Structures are given as structure tokens and as C-alpha cells.
Amino acid sequence: MTDELTLQRWAASLGLVGSPIPGDGRFTMAANGQSSPIEFERHGLEAWKLRIRLQVSNADIDRDWAIPEVFPQPSEMQPTTPRDAFGSDAQQIASSFPLVDALLTSDRDAVTVQFVATVFDEGLNHQSFAVSLWSLLHAVEAFESMRSLRARPHAVLTRLREAAPARPFARPSRR
Predict the structure, then answer these.
(1) Which of the two ends of the chain, N or C, has the fewest CB atoms closer than 10 A to its terminal CB?
(2) 3-class state of residue 160 by DSSP
């Protein structure tokens, strides 16, 4: 069974920082440049769950994942609402990385996306831990990149609207 101190030491050697308190089967550490910490939690006697939680407001989802009406209605297998498209994108990104899954929960104002990877004690060594952690961090990075790309058109339109003159189509008077 891999203990907390070993995982903390391995995580620190990979650039994660934090001040975990050992002993309760849970601790958090942060990757350089990441705003959300990585949560480490003992999962039974044979595994650890590594988790990063990201929260996205419902307003951002509705704005950035809106499905244009110009396109024909998608089939039953494709998402039909911004929230469905958001969830589908998160799942698709997670599934691109070994042993990473995306779990979504929602409340009134936001959706929380949890990217989760499981590391099993059997055969766990520094290398296999590093690969699992790398997969988790890169899944989150890919998701954040996609979020940024989806928000870009809205940001460009906002800047164009702000830069437009107050009366853009005023005709010059004829004398």
C-alpha cells in the first residue's frame, strides 16, 4: 500500500507544491500555474483518487456552448442544448487521456467538472504515478484551452461593439 508521504514526495518532485497534513488519507497540492488544486484521496485499501475540480457558470455555458440554429437539428446521439454540448466536450476530452474521467454536477448557478484519475497501489511506482498525474493535468489543460477557444468569439464581438462609434451608420448631411 502506497502511503501519503510517498505520494507527496513524488508529487513534489514533479513540481507540485502544498502543505499537506499527512495521516487522514486526503491532501491537496497545486501544480505550478494551475488555479485549481489537485486533491488526493485514499480510495479503499488499493487505490488513490486524484481530482481537479473546475467550476463554470451556467451563463458561460449558455453563451459559449450555444448551438447555432443555422445548422440542421442534430441526431439523437448529438447534444441539443449548450449544457449537453458542454458535458459531451468534457467527457470527450477526459476520454482522450488514459484512466481519466470527467464527472459533472450542477447547482443553480454553475456546473462543476471533476477530472478524476485513479492510481492503484499494486505496481505503483514513481513512473506510473507521474504518467497518471500527467494525464490528469493535461486533460484539464485541454479542457481549459477548449473553454478559451469557445469564449473567444464572444470576447471579439464585445470588443468590436465597444470600439464601434455611437452612431455607426449616420449619413453625412447634404448641403
Answers:
(1) C
(2) helix
